[in-house]
Every structure is written in structure tokens, then in C-alpha cells.
Write a structure and sequence with these properties.
- It is built from no helices and 9 strands.
- The model has no long low-confidence stretch (mean pLDDT 96).
- Strands 1, 2, 3, 4, 5, 6, 7, 8 and 9 form a 9-stranded antiparallel beta sheet that branches.
- It is globular, with a radius of gyration of 14 Å.
- With 117 residues, the chain is mainly beta.
Length: 117
Amino acid sequence: MIDFKTFAHLAQIDLGEPQPKPTSVEGDQLEAANTLWTSEDGKIEVGVWECSQGRFTARRDTNSEICHIVSGRVTLHGPDGAAKDVGPGELLVLPLGWEGEWTIHEKTRKLYILHSI
């Protein structure tokens, strides 16, 4: 039998102790995450992530990512210089091959879904 999973309100999920963000390029960013579910084949991961103010680089070389912003405000910067502000309640998709930067304007929490190739 295949069953379903439910989780507490995303803003209330404990993410553990924040750690330094390895790809941070501005600010003393700290991040924390909690993986909520992983598919049996390991190709899909669902979790909650939070990061403090600052700027970091990101690459989607081996997976795509869907993000729902729970709280906070960010600006995404693409490689062509395009920028987009994203805030609470908004959904964003980072397709396979995307690279750019995130500017975190205030502590931000997101639900993420990673799909690996």
C-alpha cells in the first residue's frame, strides 16, 4: 500500500541549528534545512530551508528546483543580468542548467522541491 505524508505548518517546522552558507559572497549568512521527504529512487527531495540576509551564488547543474517562499524577500539574479523580486506566497522555478545569485533582503524561508537527473 502507498500512503501519503502530512507535515506541520511550514513556518513552524524545526530546521535545526543554522550553519555558515558555503556559497555566500556577501554577509555572514547562515542557513538551515530539514528534508521532509525523499522519493524511493532518490530523484525527488522535498524540504524546508531558511537563510539569513546576504547574497550567495547558486547553480542547478544536476537538478531543477521549485521554491515556494513562505516568509522573507529575495531578489534572484540570472546570468544575463535579469533580476526578479520574490516574496511570501510566490512560487519560482529554477530549471536544470540555471545559474545565478540570490540576494536575501531579510531572513527567508522556503519550501523546496528538488528533481535530480
